[in-house]
Design brief:
Elements lengths: L13 E5 L5 H10 L5 E5 L11 H19 L3 E4 L2 H14 L5 E2 L5 H7 L4 E6 L1 H4 L2 H10 L4 E6 L3 H6 L3 H15 L11 E4 L8 H8 L4 E3 L2 H14 L13 E5 L5 H9 L2
Parallel strand pairs: 1-2, 1-3, 2-9, 3-4, 5-6, 5-7, 7-8
Helix pairs in contact: 1-10, 2-3, 8-9
């Protein structure tokens, strides 16, 4: 499917979607790194959490959202700002839309290896991400370079999505305790990978639990850099001195929920 926008290529918006508001963490990095770009953000909160759905369901939602963003908004590139949707659907989306630059996300294991000094790295992610063939391949390829302690975090993305602070704190406490000892000493976890875009918005809670010596690693800045590279390579980077920086919010969330989250987390 080609784009339907009357705008010239470089002035068309970049589409971003997630199962909910977690992808706002990616959007925040994108807007910081690409301030002249316009963005359309789609939050599929009415069908969340993706991490606890099957691959077929997530793929179908990803395909429908991509089609809507192309047909209705003429996007010039797409960022799949969801680890679960990336693992379940990014290969399908690229096959269906070969003319569209599509950037996915994955848990930042490679950056974590470079940052870790103890060689013990914790990974918090959804069960769907951790069970995927894409994650297993990444994990196995890097297994000899560090010891990865993997923790599925059932319910955490949903608690963050719902702005349930009490549940978010309780689940973060439960899962970090299960992961083990954090710190900079021998045998301790000194780097924690946030393998779901929602988890970035619990970073203050996690920081209080694991301590200041532990590095938290998310995917926002690497995704922003990759998006810039893909736009430049395609000749689609917005370079106008005037204009740009516009944001449109869409989705299936309850009325006002996405706007409230954007006001809180994009400020």
């Amino acid at each position: 499917m080609g784009d339907t926008s009357p705008l010239p290529g470089a002035r068309r918006p970049v589409g971003v979607f997630d199962s909910g508001v977690g992808g706002l963490s990616i959007l925040r990095a994108l807007r910081a790194g690409l301030p002249r770009e316009d963005f359309v953000y789609f939050s599929d909160g009415g069908h969340a959490p993706y991490g606890e759905r099957g691959d077929a369901y997530v793929a179908a939602r990803s395909q429908a959202i991509t089609q809507e963003l192309r047909a209705q908004h003429g996007i010039k590139a797409l960022v799949v700002a969801c680890n679960t949707a990336t693992t379940a659907a990014v290969h399908l989306l690229r096959a269906e839309h070969p003319d569209l630059p599509i950037i996915g996300v994955e848990p930042a294991l490679k950056p974590a290896i470079a940052l870790s000094r103890t060689g013990r790295i914790g990974i918090m992610a959804t069960r769907g991400t951790l069970a995927s063939a894409k994650f297993r391949a990444l994990h196995e390829a890097l297994a000899g370079q560090a010891e990865f302690i993997v923790q599925p975090c059932d319910g955490l993305a949903d608690a963050i999505q719902s702005a349930d602070a009490t549940k978010t704190i309780a689940l973060c406490d439960q899962y970090t305790r299960t992961l083990g000892s954090f710190g900079s000493g021998n045998g301790q976890i000194d780097t924690l990978v946030l393998g779901c875009t929602h988890y970035t918005f619990a970073s203050d809670v996690l920081r209080a639990l694991v301590g200041p010596q532990v590095t938290l690693v998310d995917t926002g800045e690497p995704v922003a850099r990759q998006t810039r590279q893909r736009l430049e390579a395609a000749g689609l980077l917005a370079t106008d001195e005037a204009g740009g920086g516009q944001l449109r919010l869409l989705g299936t969330d309850r009325p006002g929920a996405l706007e409230a989250a954007a006001a809180r987390w994009l400020a």
